Amino acid sequence: MSLHIDILGTRRDRLGECPLWDHREQALYWIDSKARLVRRLRGEALHEYDEWATPSDVGSIALTKSGRLVLSLEDGFHILDLQTGATRRLAEVQHAGPSMRLNDGRTDRQGRFVAGSLVVGRHDPDGGYYRLERDGTATKLFDGIALANATCFSPDGRSLYHADSFSDEVSVVDYDTVTGAVGPRRSLFNTRAQGSAPDGTTVDADGNLWVALVQAGKLGCYTPQGQLLRLVDVPTPFPTCPCFGGPELDVLYVTSISNSGNLLKTDHPDAGAVFAIHGLGVRGLPEVLFDDEAIA
Question: Model's pTM, two decimal places?
Answer without folding.
Answer: 0.97
